[in-house]
Specification:
By secondary structure, the protein is an alpha/beta fold. The chain contains 10 helices and 16 strands. Mean pLDDT is about 95; it is low at about 1-20.
């Protein structure tokens, strides 16, 4: 081939290699990859490791074909009896946890990483759950502090040690893997969870979870300097005169204060106005929620992503307005809950929010990803 074409080919190959091997970083309110802006336009797919390798490939192929860049998925599944389907990562027996590194444990997650890499995608991996789905915090509490309230997950020394041991296994295994963009401390941490309300020992205005987030994020950074770290929270505010419930004290998360934690690289926010009591004004409420977090992003000068969002009615029109607001407000990025696929066993899990390639929302999601990339 002519020399100019050959040199261009080499340059393209080098760029592809760099983009697949570099670690995503932060610079001000942007994510970067090898010195260029990295656009977080993506989806959640918590269920990936519970499927066959072929179905994992199908899901990632659909996601990549839509122009998305980033997938958030679960790095947890705590069980008290051996699971004979899908993947589980930690087995608890009489208060003793054993991390499953076999083919139906971390070995299975190895394939999730491998397939994501092959499809040019990055992963945000969440390491435990506030809710009882897939085990989460409640298993730690029931195994190590029987009779304790949910919020002792954040303060009990035995629980913190056990969780750090679990984190160590995951982070050490993948600390040199650039396909992973970030670790998250938990999915939607709150003082209360699936098993009861908060105790008086958990500060519902934010200090308990803030201290825990500082401790755990610093621990991750101490063993893995390569990856970004975030909380994975819903972005609750703590306003004295809140306009609506999610702006009010009560769940134990202070979004503004948590953004100041030096070992957290970016902020996260979720949006489910229907289940948060805003059914009468869900679309415009979501616009205000995005705008408020974009303002907090600018003040903190850290990236913030709308990493979960969903409505069950008027999805296409609502999401179009929310995507437009993300782009115009300067919010750094977004991950829809959730882009689905047709797998060998049928549609991927649908909790009322899933959108599929043949549906009306998918084109909206695709065009929004392109617009976000163009915004830079």
């Amino acid at each position: 081939m002519p020399r100019e074409i050959f040199l261009g080919y080499l340059g393209a190959q080098l760029l592809q290699r760099q983009s697949s091997t570099g670690f995503v970083k932060v610079s001000g309110q942007k994510f970067t990859l090898n010195g260029a802006t990295y656009t977080v336009a993506g989806t959640n797919a918590y269920w990936l490791a519970q499927n066959t390798n072929a179905d994992i490939d199908t899901a990632f192929a659909d996601i990549a074909a839509a122009g998305l860049t980033t997938v958030r998925t679960w790095g947890f599944n705590d069980v008290t009896a051996v699971q004979n389907y899908g993947a589980y990562y930690q087995l608890w027996t009489n208060g003793v946890p054993t991390v499953n590194t076999g083919s139906n444990g971390l070995g299975k997650f190895d394939y999730v990483v491998q397939s994501a890499k092959a499809h040019g995608l990055r992963l945000i991996v969440t390491l435990t759950n506030n809710w009882s789905d897939y085990g989460g915090m409640d298993v730690y509490v029931s195994q190590l502090n029987p009779g304790g309230t949910h919020d002792t997950f954040y303060t009990n020394a035995k629980i913190i040690s056990a969780y750090e041991n679990y984190i160590n296994t995951w982070v050490t295994r993948y600390k040199n893997e650039s396909t992973i963009m970030a670790w998250e401390l938990a999915n939607e941490p709150r003082c209360s969870g699936s098993t009861g309300s908060a105790s008086s020992a958990c500060d519902t205005t934010g200090s308990t979870i803030q201290k825990w987030a500082s401790t755990i994020s610093a621990y991750i950074k101490s063993i893995d300097p390569n990856h970004l770290v975030a909380i994975g929270d819903e972005g609750w505010f703590q306003e004295a005169n809140p306009p609506t419930y999610p702006y009010a004290p009560g769940v134990g998360v202070n979004f503004v204060n948590n953004l100041q934690i030096s070992t957290l690289d970016f902020g996260t926010v979720h949006s489910y106005p229907e289940s948060w009591g805003q059914q009468a004004n869900e679309t415009l409420w979501g616009v205000d929620w995005i705008t408020a977090h974009a303002a907090a992003q600018k003040t903190a000068n850290k990236p913030v992503i709308l990493e979960e969002f969903g409505v069950t009615v008027n999805q296409a029109s609502t999401y179009q307005l929310w995507y437009n607001t993300i782009i115009s407000s300067g919010l750094t990025g977004n991950l829809i809950w959730q882009a689905g696929s047709q797998l060998s066993t049928g549609p991927s899990p649908n909790d009322g929010y899933a959108v599929y390639p043949t549906g009306t929302v998918y084109p909206v999601m695709e065009s929004a990803a392109a617009a976000l990339k163009a915004r830079g």
